[in-house]
Specification:
Low-confidence stretches: none
Number of strands: 0
Structural class: mainly alpha
Strand content: under 5%
Length: 92
């Protein structure tokens, strides 16, 4: 009787350990999946950041050119009556 009880306890403990291993495995896979999603989001943000930096440098360059034209060359925007629109010659 004692041996049967001990065997039952050992079987239950082995079953509990097996279930805990399965649960831990499931949690590890779920966390790994979440990690990959976060890393993809991070890569997307890096790409967007690079694009924004490029856009910022382009805008900054245009602002710098306009400032240099105004300050060093004394250039200014023409009055609306001074602007002449020229159509391009048709190509044949």
């Amino acid at each position: 009787m004692n041996t049967a009880r001990l065997n039952l306890i050992l079987i239950l403990m082995a079953l509990a350990c097996a279930l805990s291993v399965v649960a831990a495995n499931h949690r590890a896979r779920k966390l790994f999946s979440e990690l990959e999603a976060v890393q993809k989001h991070m890569r997307d943000l890096d790409v967007e950041f690079g694009q924004l930096q490029l856009e910022q440098s382009t805008v900054a360059a245009l602002v710098r050119v306009e400032k240099l034209a105004r300050d060093k060359l004394g250039m200014k925007q023409p009055a609306p009556g001074q602007v002449i629109s020229v159509d391009a010659a048709p190509t044949q």
